[in-house]
Amino acid sequence: MLLFNIVVTGFFRVLAIIDYYLEKVVGVFFKKKWKIAGSCKKDGRCCRDIGIIAEKWIINNKYLLKLVTWWYTKVHPFYFKYYVENEDALIFGCTKLNDNGSCSIYKKRPPICRKYPVVNYFKKPVLFEGCGFKAEMNS
Ligand code: SF4
């Protein structure tokens, strides 16, 4: 069972890394509406409450909810904290966050951490209050 867990989580970790680099390649060809300016304050505010948006139909299905939770707690080093109903957000904490806000696995941090602040193709990026980054329109 342990070997199975290692193989499965390893497989999904590799998928997440491939996804991260594929998105970088796509970004070379398609310009996004928004870009990120500023810099990280390195105080760990984005690691304390990691918000994962999940549609209501996923939240309401116990198997899908288990799958999402498994993904973020086994493939990622997170633990479930709480659910914010009006924002459809599952909030996770991270086991790798040091007390001073630094990351204990910074060089090996998961792709989701490397992607923050996330810039998708159309929506304005959502940033934590007080974050050193800011969203600007691409010219
Ligand atoms: S792995 Fe590191 S960067 Fe990612 S949430 Fe945890 S402490 Fe933050």
SSE order and pairing:
Layout: H1 2-29, E1 34-38, H2 45-48, E2 50-53, H3 56-59, H4 62-75, E3 78-84, E4 89-94, H5 111-115, E5 133-137
Antiparallel strand pairs: 1-5, 2-4, 3-4
The structure holds iron/sulfur cluster.
Structural description of this entry:
The chain has one domain (2-137). It is globular. The chain has five helices and five strands, in the order αβαβααββαβ. By secondary structure, it is an alpha+beta fold.
Q: How many individual β-strands?
A: 5
What radius of gyration results from the CA coordinates? Answer: 16 Å
Task: Give a list of the ligands.
Answer: iron/sulfur cluster
* Number of domains as seen in the coordinates: 1
Poorly predicted runs are: none
Structural classification: alpha+beta
What is the compact description of this entry?
The protein has 139 residues and is of the alpha+beta class. It has one domain.
